[in-house]
Design a protein that fits this description.
Layout: E1 10-15, H1 24-32, E2 36-37, E3 46-52, H2 57-67, E4 74-81, E5 101-110, E6 113-114, H3 118-130, H4 150-158, H5 169-172, E7 183-188, H6 197-205, E8 209-210, E9 219-225, H7 230-239, E10 247-254, E11 274-283, E12 286-287, H8 291-303, H9 323-331, H10 342-345, E13 356-361, H11 370-378, E14 382-383, E15 392-398, H12 403-412, E16 420-427, E17 447-456, E18 459-460, H13 464-477, E19 494-499, H14 508-516, E20 520-521, E21 530-536, H15 541-550, E22 558-565, E23 585-594, E24 597-598, H16 602-615, H17 627-631
Parallel strand pairs: 1-2, 1-3, 3-4, 4-5, 7-8, 7-9, 9-10, 10-11, 13-14, 13-15, 15-16, 16-17, 19-20, 19-21, 21-22, 22-23
Antiparallel strand pairs: 5-6, 11-12, 17-18, 23-24
């Protein structure tokens, strides 16, 4: 949270691969900042570790960290070889768990030189931040050029004709200007839903003063939300503001994905009055908490001549009143429990206080929502005609335009003071249609569960998404699982593990959690009551599953875990169960993993829930820090069977 600083100025360099000498640029620049290179780790205050990527990022970093001595703070520089200065690489810091690493940055290089690009500039800013180094007059990519080359570049630019001064981001930062004072005027060139106010408030928190007219200001802050094409929107925004003032341009991209990649907009800005252009991500009325926004904020602060201070991370994006509580909660958690996902936030899920519910429908569902209402009644819940009589509300919100907007409007129309079950309905005929989880957009504390369901015309689709949603709803109702199950439960506790490919050991998480649930691993299929088959996908799903199934002995029930390698926790994969015809497979689940670890995500939550259901396991959670201990505590009670057929005539009968 509070980024550590290196304890002194002496550093030792360790190079874990072939860099063609490109890393020497970093070493020289560190020396230029007054840091002192020493010849052994023992003499140093901190280590600078250069890790050029030769194969897979996680593997190369892991091998590199294993080779260096412990006990010293580490600055880890992950080097990616490419000639493309706009090359995109996922942030390697997500793969680093070593507590001695105080900062991890990714840089781009080609042959023997660092690329001159914004990516490297941002990395350098991060490194300087942990060194407690003032930004000085030069805070741009100039530090990446050989020292003797900088004056020549400056000279060449000053001698260029006016038409040649089309400033790309690189040139724009050559002698980066500072704003001349503290008074700023805000100009908003489109709809931001108020998300830009976060920036305004943070600027004020840095001692900047907002004024009501451009004439009174020392500089302008222009917020440009993108609604069509970046270049067009920026051009239109720039044409509407008065000239003669330095401009801080904040280009805003609407997305729910905090890892969303956008090319740098500064390359499209030619106005010489723009002293810095940054890209930020927002969703609905909030800035996303992500590294891109951190870096953008760092750049803005740099032109304000503002010191980095102790907080140079996502904490600045929390509403001020939320920071202490969040920090306190995290600091009090055990280390193994600090792997926070949306699932973990819901760990202690609330229950409805009674059985009486009132239905509110916020749009046209063609009567499809009635399936839910009938099934709730089939579970012993009682529908009442007014909110006042109810114990909880069931709000059906069919999506007509944008999810966040429609949910917001629906929530504004219902009375407060009652727990809410929110059912977000997406109209489609595709039972495998993918929709991001709407719960991420819901902040109302009265909503105890948010689920997404698919419907077409007047009927709910019969699909796994709807089944999972129904499980979640039943969970908050505290409904007993009942005698009916669509999956045959396993008859014993002894299991044998079969791995059909390379999982980097990620499957061991599942094995450990099964043992934590009282299951017993045996060394041969003959001794087992059932088999657990891990099938990592390396080519085509159907082919890989088929080959895996052909290699295992018959006659035993099989739990099939299909493993998809990705770093994206929202990665969508079609359900592999549709490709499995072997009657001995009693359940097929899809899970996501990266390198040697399972991802902490909703898909894995659901898979673990399904897995546990066939084991007929009590809901006691395994140890904290395991895949079950971390994220299955709120999902463990979901039973696995279809909606009650007796109360729903639309369900196909056996």
């Amino acid at each position: 949270m509070d980024q550590k600083k290196v304890p002194g100025k002496k550093f030792h360099v360790s190079v874990a691969g072939f860099t063609n000498g490109a890393h020497q640029t970093y070493v020289n620049d560190l020396k230029g900042l007054g840091q002192i290179e020493v010849i052994s780790p023992e003499q140093s205050d901190y280590l600078v570790l250069f890790c050029p990527i030769a194969s897979r990022v996680g593997k190369d970093i892991g091998e590199t960290l294993n080779k260096i001595p412990g006990g010293k703070p580490i600055v880890l520089v992950v080097m990616h070889h490419t000639y493309d200065k706009d090359h995109f690489v996922p942030e390697s810091r997500r793969l680093v768990e070593n507590q001695e690493v105080i900062v991890t940055v990714d840089v781009l290089f080609h042959e023997s030189k660092m690329l001159i690009c914004n990516h490297n500039y941002m990395a350098w800013c991060q490194v300087k931040d942990v060194l407690v180094v003032s930004p000085g007059p030069v805070s741009s990519w100039r530090s990446w050029l050989p020292r003797e080359y900088v004056p020549q570049k400056v000279k060449e630019l000053s001698n260029m004709p006016e038409s040649g001064k089309r400033i790309s981001q690189s040139v724009q930062n050559m002698d980066q200007k500072k704003v001349p004072g503290k008074k700023f005027h805000v100009s908003v060139a489109g709809c931001t839903n108020g998300a830009h106010q976060t920036y305004v408030n943070d600027l004020k928190g840095l001692g900047q003063i907002e004024v009501i007219s451009p004439e009174q200001s020392d500089y302008l802050v222009v917020f440009c939300p993108i609604r069509s094409r970046v270049g067009t929107d920026i051009g239109e925004a720039m044409n509407k503001i008065p000239g003669g003032k330095p401009i801080v341009l904040v280009v805003m991209h609407h997305t729910y994905d905090k890892d969303h990649f956008v090319p740098e907009s500064r390359r499209l800005v030619e106005n010489p009055e723009v002293i810095v252009t940054v890209d930020v991500l927002f969703h609905e009325n909030k800035m996303l908490i992500c590294n891109r926004n951190d870096m953008a904020w760092c750049q803005v602060k740099d032109v304000l001549v503002v010191s980095s201070g102790p907080v140079s991370s996502w904490r600045s994006w929390f509403p001020r009143e939320h920071v202490p509580q969040k920090v306190k909660e995290l600091s009090n958690m055990p280390e193994s429990g600090k792997r926070i996902s949306q699932s973990v936030q819901n760990m202690d899920q609330k229950k409805v206080p009674g059985k009486k519910f009132h239905v509110s429908v916020a749009g046209c569902t063609n009567g499809a929502h009635q399936t839910y209402v009938n099934d709730l009644k089939g579970l012993g819940q009682i529908e009442v005609i007014s909110p006042e009589q109810s114990d909880y509300l069931v709000l059906f919100c069919p999506i007509a335009s944008r999810v966040g907007t429609d949910i917001g409007e629906a929530m504004n129309k219902i009375p407060g003071g009652k727990p809410i079950v929110l059912v977000v309905m997406h109209h489609t005929y595709d039972k495998d249609h993918f929709v991001p989880e709407s719960r991420r957009l819901v902040e109302n504390p009265e909503v105890i569960v948010t689920v997404d369901v698919l419907f077409h015309e007047s009927k709910m689709l019969i699909c796994n998404r709807n089944y999972m949603a129904w499980c979640q709803v039943k969970d908050v109702l505290g409904v007993s699982s009942g005698p009916v199950s669509s999956c045959r439960p396993l008859r014993g506790k002894k299991f044998h593990v079969s791995v059909a490919g390379c999982t980097n050991g990620a499957h061991q998480t599942y094995v450990n959690d099964l043992k934590g649930l009282g299951q017993i691993e045996v060394i041969s299929p003959e001794q087992s009551d059932y088999l657990v088959l891990f099938c990592p996908i390396r080519s085509r799903v159907g082919t890989d599953i088929g080959e895996a199934m052909n290699k295992i002995p018959g006659g035993k029930p099989i739990v099939l875990v299909v493993m998809h390698h990705t770093y994206d926790k929202d990665h969508f994969v079609p359900e592999s169960r549709r490709l499995v015809e072997n009657p001995e497979v009693i359940v097929t689940v899809d899970v996501l993993f990266y390198e040697s670890k399972m991802l902490i995500c909703n898909r894995n939550d659901m898979a673990w829930c399904q897995f546990k259901d066939v084991l007929v396991v009590s809901p006691e959670p395994p140890a904290a820090g395991s895949i079950g201990g971390v994220y299955s505590q709120w999902a463990v009670r979901w039973p696995l069977w279809p909606w009650p057929r007796s109360s729903n005539p639309d369900w196909p009968q056996d």
